[in-house]
Amino acid sequence: xxxxxxSFVAWACALIILLVLIWFSLFTGVKDVRxxxxxGDGDKLVFFVVSRIPRTLALILVGSGxxxxxxxxxxxxxxxxxxxxxxxxxxxxxxxxxTALIFIPNSSLFVRMLFALGFTFLTSFLFIFFVHKVKLRSxxxxxxxxxxxxxxxxxxxxxxxxxxxxxxxxQEWLLGDFSSVMQGQYEAVFLVLPAVAIIYLYADKITIxxxxxxxxxxxxxxxxAIVYLGLFVVSMVVSSSVVTVGAIPFLGLIVPNVVSMIVGxxxxxxxxxxxxxxxxxxxxxxxxxxxxxxxxxxxxxxxxGVIGSVVFLVLILKRK
Amino acid sequence: MDNTEKNxxxxxxxxxxxxxxxVLKDVSGSIxxxxxxxxxxxxxxxxxxxxxxxxxxxxxxGGTVSFLDKELSTYKGTxxxxxxxxxxxxxHLDLKLTVRDLVSFGRFPYxxxxxxxxxxxxxxxxxxxSDLMNLQNTYIxxxxxxxxxxxxxxxxxxQDTDFILLDEPLNNLDMKHAVHVMKTLRRLVDELGKTxxxxxxxxxxxxxxxxxxxxxxxxxxxxDDETAKVIDxxxxxxxxxxxxxxIERNDKKICNYFNL
Lengths: 320, 260
Hints:
Chain A is mostly helical. Helix content of chain A is 75%, strand content 0%. Chain A has one domain: ABC transporter involved in vitamin B12 uptake, BtuC. In chain A, helix 4 packs antiparallel against helix 12. The mean pLDDT of chain A is 87. Chain B folds into two domains: 175 residues, 3-Layer(aba) Sandwich (Rossmann fold); 69 residues, no CATH class. The longest helix of chain B has 18 residues. At the A-B interface, helix 10 and helix 11 of A face helix 2 and strand 6 of B. Chain A: It is found in: Cell membrane.
C-alpha cells in the first residue's frame, strides 16, 4: 500500500473520485436540476444555492471533521474504540441543545450550539478524567463505559424532553439527517474549519500525547494543556455538527481506524487522509440514503449506523 | 568516586504520600555524573516514585530536587527536555508509528516538528546506536518486546539529553534483549558520557552493569554506594530479607539467591 502514500497518480485519482461524488451529491435529488439549468433557470439556481450546495458542503465538513475529532479522542484516551459515539459526546451535545430549548425556547442556532459546546466539553472532560483515573486498560471496557455514560445522559434528556413535550425533536437529533440542511440554518458547521486548522497545528503534539503522559512530559510538553485543547476542539466539531445535522454514529470510530490500519498513526501525515476518507464515506452514504427508496430518503444516520456497526465488529475482531 | 565535580542532580528530604501512605520518607542523595546508577529494593520501596520525582513526572509533597543548581520545577518544559529524559515502562502502546517516526519524536524539543538536517542526522545516529537500521520503517506494534524497548531507547538517544532515567527498562524482556539493552546503556555512559539512572529488579543486571547502587527500603534510602560494596551478602540480606550467596568469577560478582 506504500504507493498510496505519496504517488501523484494516487492523489489525482483521489481528487477525481471526490469531485465526481460532489457532482453527484449536487445533482441528485427529487427536484431535477441539471448543470445547464444553473445558467438559464433562475428558480433552479436559487434552489441549488439554497439547498444543494449547503447540503454537499455540510456533508464534506461533517465527514472530515467528525472523523478527525474521533482520531483526536482516540489519541487522548489511548483507546482505538473511543469516538464521539462511544464517549457520551454525542448525547452531551443533544442534552446541551435540549437545555437551550427548555430554558431559552426561541434560542438561535448559535446559542444552541454554544450550549451543546459547553455540555460536550464538560462530558468529554469527565470521560477522559475517568479513563485516566481507572487504571483498567481493557480496550473494550472503556468504550463500553462511554456508551453507558451516553445512555445515562440520553435517558436524562429524554425524561426532560418528555416533560416538556419535545420528545420528537430529541428523537430527530438521534438520527443524523442532511435533508433539512439549508442556507441560513447550517452555517454553524463551518466551525469545523477552524477546529481542523487548530488540530493540524497541534497534530504532532496530539500524537505525542497519544503515547502517554510520561512521554509528553519527557519531551517537554504540557500534557494537560494538550488534553484540554484537544477536548475543546473535539467539542467544537461535535457540537457544531450535531446542531446542524444531528448525530452520525460510528463515523468518528471507523474512519480513523481504517485509515490507521493502512497508513499508520503519524497524525500530521494521516490527518489529510482521515479528512478525505471521512468526506468521501459520508458523501457515498448520503447518496445511498437518497437513492435507496427514491423519491424518499433514508436518514444518513441509519445508513452510517448499519455500515458502521458492521465495520466496528470487524475492527473489534481484527484488532485485539 | 572522585570528588572533583559536584553532582548535577541532587535531591533533598523528598517526601511523598499516596493518600495516607508515606511512600518516601525524607530521602536525600544525589546521582553521580556520567555513571550508571541502579535503584534497587523490594516492591513498594519507592524506587519508581523517586525516579518519577527526580525526573519531574510527579510532584513531591516535601523536599527539593535541584538540577544544575536550579530547582527542577523552575525549568521550562522544553529546556529541561533537552537535558533530562525519562522513559517509563511502555504500558499498552498500540500506536502504529514506524520506528523512525518514533525516534524522530525524540527531536521534538529541538525541532518542534520541523526536522532539520541536523535532526535527521541525530535520528540516524540514534537508530544506528541501537542497531535498528533494518527495522526503521517497521511499525512499532509489529516489533517484539525487546525490539520495541530498543526503539524507545533510540528515541531517548535522539533526544540527546545528558541525563537519561529509565523505569524498569528490562521488564518483560528475554535474556538476550535484556543484555542488549544493558550494553546499550553502558555504551551511552562509556562512549557518550551520559548519566543513566535505572530502576531495576534483577540484582545480577545491577551487579554487572551499574557503577553505583542506591537501595531503597520502606521509603528510605538504606544504601548508596559503589556497586562492589552493595553486592555483599550481609548488605543484600538487609535490603531484601533473603539469603544471598555471592559467587566471584573473573572479577565479576554473581548473586545467587534462587534456592538457598
